[in-house]
What we know:
- By secondary structure, the chain is of the alpha+beta class.
- Helix content is 26%, strand content 37%.
- It folds into two domains: 2-39; 45-133, Cupredoxins -  blue copper proteins (Immunoglobulin-like), CATH 2.60.40.
- A five-stranded mixed β-sheet has the order 3-9-8-5-6, with no helix packed on it. Strands 2-1-4-7 form a four-stranded mixed β-sheet, with no helix packed on it.
- The longest helix has 19 residues, at 20-38.
- The radius of gyration is 25 Å and the shape is elongated.
Amino acid sequence: MNGMIATSCTLDVLSWLLRGRAVRHLVFIILVATISLAVPVEACADELPTYSVVVKDGHITPARLEVAAGNKIKLAIKNEGPGPCEFENLDLRVEKVLAPGASSFVVIHSLKPGSYRFFDEFHPSTSEMLLIAK
C-alpha cells in the first residue's frame, strides 16, 4: 500500500509541474542556467584593463592614452567639472553624458591599430583625448 501512495504522490507532483506557471518557471531556470554557462568569463567589465579618464573645465586627462591593439578595454570616466560633459568618439560610436561629479565607464571592443579622437561635445575645441592602439 505504501508504494501505491508514493506513486500517487509522484504522479500528482508531476502533473502539477506540467501545468502553466511551473513549466514557465522551469523553462526560465533552465534558460538562465544555460546562458550563464555560455557567457565567457572575459565578458565581465570588471576584469578588463581599465584606464581612468577625467573631464574637467573643457579638458580631458590624459590627453594621450596608449593601449594594446586587439584587446577590449574599459575607460572609467569621471566628470570633475562644474557642468555636464559628453565624452564621445564618432567613429567608434561611443557616447557618455555625465552630470557634474558623476562617474561611469565605457567598454571599447578590440581596436585596430591606429588613433581614435575622443572629445567633450560641450567643449569640442579645447577637449581632446587621443587613444592610440598599438
